[in-house]
């Protein structure tokens, strides 16, 4: 099946209440683009051209509705002194936080996105991306939020203990992280792309709502407000369970909220869908990675049934980044299911499609 509109044409039509060919759909292929382009993931660490070309190749193959420069969770912490493991052909991981001695916390400085670590490579990749695709699909620069980045500066276990023993150190790490995030977000905006925020450590699966509101929310809210003050809408993703902080997220002023597959999608729509666009939430592991194309089709239909009528809009999406080795046929199945469903949504057609799965 082929699309009849570009992603920008589709988004514009839907926003105006006009006919479109289908709902927006984004499988969030992430570093799996290396498999489509034919390179090793480690090549992303030193080549802006390869990062961009891999994203472009994946978009050209599948035709999804958003393209983003984002390789892993750690470029910002790395640029501020954290040590990172770089596997030959897999996603980077944290080797050591920026600070071994919390007593040196005043030595932390915000990163310069044009000079430090891999950040300049990502910025250069964004230039290639928007030059190639900017007329037809929304192009984004991804960044982690200040709360998550602070964990990588101090160490996850140490920061969790500091909630109780020295909260001022937590605030210091979050503040300097915020400064880095704002500088990087401004660089994204200056290129004409839209920043998107990933905040996995804000998950209620990891941090309770009380500590999120005390340490995470103030800095995350400032980042969202900074981006929106520049005329850019913010889409945010938080992994795991988030229902206890939905109202907090909406109050920040985000335009879109991407939810994990453990979230009750219908409940999310009913509670906050009148104030924020909902994105999600096909299971990236059990369905997209380990399932069959028929499983993917059924999961997409189920998600659309739950959320297609969300007042502020709905985007079909995976619940998180896809595993690198996700079968390409399953990504194709996700896109084809969206095309088969079409737009405007016909609930009777959805029911009949589910019956034929």
TrEMBL record:
MF term (GO), any: uroporphyrinogen decarboxylase activity
Domain of life: Bacteria
GO terms classed as biological process: porphyrin-containing compound biosynthetic process
Matching InterPro entries: Methanogen_methyltrans, UROD/MetE-like_sf, Uroporphyrinogen_deCOase
SUPFAM superfamilies: UROD/MetE-like (SSF51726)
Domain Uroporphyrinogen decarboxylase (URO-D): 6-340
Name of the protein this chain belongs to: Uroporphyrinogen decarboxylase
Species of the source: Desulfosporosinus fructosivorans
